[in-house]
Amino acid sequence: MEKINRRIINNIIYSFKAVWKIDKFVVFLYGLNVLLEKVQPFLYIFLPKVLIDELTSDDADWFKTIGIILAFLIAITAANFIQRSTYSQTSARLIKYKLEKRKELALKIIDIDYSYMENSKTLNEYTLAQNAVGNYCNGMEGMMREMFGFIFSVLTVIGYVSILATLNIFVVLALIIITVVSYFIKQRIASQNMSKREETENCERRSSYYSNVMSDFSYGKEIRIYNAKKFLTDKYNLFNEMGIGIRKKVILQRTKWNFLLNIINLIKGLICYGYLLSAALNGNIQIGSFLMYFVALGGFTGWIEDVTESLAQLRRIDIQVDDYRNFMTIPDMKNGNEHKDIKTVNKIEFKNVWFKYPGTENYVLKNINLCLDTGDKLAVVGKNGGGKTTLIKLLCGLYEPDKGEILYDGINLRDLNRADYVNQLAVIFQTINIFAFSVKANVALCAKDNINAEKVSESLKSSDVDYILSKSHNGLDMSLSKILDDEGIELSGGENQKIALARAIYKNGSVIILDEPTSHLDAIAEKRIYDNYLQIAGNKISVFISHRLASTKFCDNIIMIEDGEIIETGTHDFLIEQDGKYAEMFNIQSVYYKDEGAEILE
Ligand code: ADP
């Protein structure tokens, strides 16, 4: 996907709308907070002049002087109090904004077209988008903050210019010219920083991967047994050093430009304070005015710095908002328009399906033709890398064929409404994810109130794992992890596989897909699952992937995939009779399964 660089005004409007949509009031509060922050220093400019003018006047009045000081103190205390309160209010309210934005990002990840998910570029873009919502100085919140700051700083600078113009217009002009030069230097520094951000993010993502692996218990066994500590540390150090190297170069450049900036500031100081001093020595200005201009010059320099800094920050944030928006515009899973209230799927057809992964050259599936009717039990077998899982991904609509079509009851999958057909799929993937939820939430994977506890118990029984309920007094509410619950239990790989099967049984879709569902099970458990499977599959369409050919005997039809093509098809007995590749593989495997209790599977 092409990255879009939008105009800054477009991103400013987008940012204000984004915050406004979540909390309108916070925008006003933020504005008030920044206004009060900018107004306070003005009071300090005028106070010394007003006081000295009063004290040095012929009719100096102590009551009036005390009145001025009191009024000043009250004004400054009130402004300060309101500013602090609005600050705490906005910080508290903006938590809601942050949480909403994080949720939006998480939901986007769920909806994103799957072909983008299996792509490291998308992961990089995700990290950049996360940066845009991770911190109050960044992204849309940062843009709002900086815009308010910028507007009020410009107004403040105009205020200072009006004061200083009464001293000498040429000094003000010199100040403005020097400021413009400083601005361009700062812009250059900011764009240099941003130009390297993708490279640094990439290094950071890789180094965090290695540090996560090192600290993740689940990798503990492999790391110890295979002595991977050094390998992981070396990789971690490598990517850290690469990141640090890039940053060092950026910092070196920045130091050079900062040196130039300091020289320019020195010249600016010499011009301004030199002129002011000579005006005072020549008696052109009084002591009160001298003080006022002195403070105003310091203030002006500070504020003008603020304006240029703000512009540089806006440029940085503008890029972040683009990052966020670009990520959010990555296409979602395509959703056909054809709403069909699918109660069951009676027929699935693959017609001349060809598929290759995005960005790759070779077809992983070649001219696949299949027809599955209600009650059909298809086994897909073949060597690793043959294309079995890819076939399932296409069947689930995670990818679209490059050529040919997949039809659900005669309707092209791409034309169907995703929610409608996903409802009909019960899939057990190779990698099983058990959530840190209760048993019943893990099986039902839906909100607490909608869970049918009886159905959950039946599903656990059918998948032969109901005995785990005796492990805790919490029954179906027992948590399947200790991460969020001290009383939670940890299950074995095989038990997790059975929970996944219970999940598929509970869902009761009309298409059931099992991708190596028994790889972690012992032979007896496997046999029991198969017995139950015949019941579960019943009159559904079922697709069963396994590398153990003995386990596919109970299927009515077997296809053998090699190098993306269906090379053999038929029942177990037929394929054995044919004495082709299936028979060859079966005979090799049966030697090994004898020791494992293959007779159980007979
Ligand atoms: P099987 O399930 O039969 O072991 P797969 O369907 O997982 O095989 O893989 C088939 C081929 O597709 C393999 O060569 C694999 O390397 C390749 N492949 C799998 N996933 C991707 C992907 N996301 N991007 C590119 N190639 C992939």
Walk me through this protein's architecture:
This protein has 602 residues and is of the alpha/beta class. The protein contains 20 helices and 10 strands. The chain has helices at residues 8-22, 24-56, 62-111, 114-117, 120-134, 139-165, 169-195, 197-215, 220-225, 229-281, 287-328, 388-395, 418-422, 439-444, 453-462, 493-507, 523-537, 572-578, 581-596, 598-601; strands at residues 347-355, 365-373, 377-381, 403-408, 411-412, 425-428, 511-515, 541-545, 557-562, 565-570. The chain has a 6-stranded mixed β-sheet, sandwiched between helices. Strands 2-1-4-5 form a 4-stranded antiparallel β-sheet, covered by helices on one side. β4 and β5 (411-412) form a beta hairpin. α1 crosses α2, α1 packs across α6 (139-165) and α3 packs antiparallel against α5 (120-134). The structure holds adenosine-5'-diphosphate.
In short:
The chain is of the alpha/beta class. It has 20 helices and ten strands.
User: What is the CA–CA distance across the termini?
Assistant: 52 Å
Number of strands: 10
Instruction: Please mark out the parts with pLDDT under 50 across 5 or more consecutive residues, or reply none.
Output: 596-602
Helix count equals 20
What is the percentage of strand-forming residues?
A: 5-15%
Task: Give the fraction of residues assigned to helices.
Answer: 55-70%
Order of helices and strands: HHHHHHHHHHHEEEHEEHEHHHEHEEEHHH
Give the C-alpha Rg: 35 Å
Q: Which structural class fits the helix and strand makeup?
A: alpha/beta
Bound small molecules, deduplicated: adenosine-5'-diphosphate
Question: What form results from the Cα inertia axes?
Answer: elongated
Please describe the biggest sheet, giving its number of strands, its sense, and whether it closes into a barrel.
6 strands, mixed
| Widest β-sheet, arrangement of strands | 6-7-8-3-9-10
Mean pLDDT comes to 86
